[in-house]
Design brief:
Largest interface: A-B, 26 and 30 residues
Oligomer: heterodimer
Largest sheet of chain B: 6 strands, mixed
Structural class of chain A: mainly beta
Strand content of chain A: over 45%
Number of strands of chain B: 10
Number of helices of chain A: 0
Strand content of chain B: over 45%
Order of helices and strands of chain B: EEEEEEEEEE
Largest sheet of chain A: 6 strands, mixed
Helix content of chain A: under 10%
Radius of gyration of chain B: 14 Å
Shape of chain B: globular
Shape of chain A: globular
Helix content of chain B: under 10%
Chain lengths: 113, 116
Amino acid sequence: DQQVKQNSPSLSVQEGRISILNCDYTNSMFDYFLWYKKYPAEGPTFLISISSIKDKNEDGRFTVFLNKSAKHLSLHIVPSQPGDSAVYFCAATRMEYGNKLVFGAGTILRVKS
Amino acid sequence: GAGVSQSPSNKVTEKGKDVELRCDPISGHTALYWYRQSLGQGLEFLIYFQGNSAPDKSGLPSDRFSAERTGGSVSTLTIQRTQQEDSAVYLCASSLDSGNTYNEQFFGPGTRLTVL
């Protein structure tokens, strides 16, 4: 029972273009959503988040969009840089339950120079 | 300051043996989480400690798995009678008091466990 799904295992983008990573969830009780970035042999690092009361959050080159009716969120990276090449995990939680994160399987992003 | 550290970084063991994985959280972080990532999968929640409260063990896959947190700091995840399906990267994270708001979880580099 996968509550958080990332249906694209990988994505390849040219440097300078937009990268769009997608995530779907099934549990309507989730009220906080996050994106984590992971390089090989390192732990995931927090990238950006969004509360369920918002539909957009922007931080520099990174923007997360939330569509609650569709139970869908996306991460936009503009412009994409080679250093963005990593595995991106979508995660969701219900804050009152101790912030246990439910993760998707990840999307490998490759930014070509 | 130092981040979350985990040891060992790699562990190879034989089926049926017990293993202990260690996590040193960031100083002052009262919440500590264990996750694991099996090949091709996302991170899967295992157990959560918050201060002196009873841990949330709802993610532990079997009674072969247990964890302790001594003195509100270091945590040890123990897997008894390891099986090949236990092979995964085990990740520890810590955060400030979780409460009813989200506090960023900082992850360690993980321990890669291989059960032969």
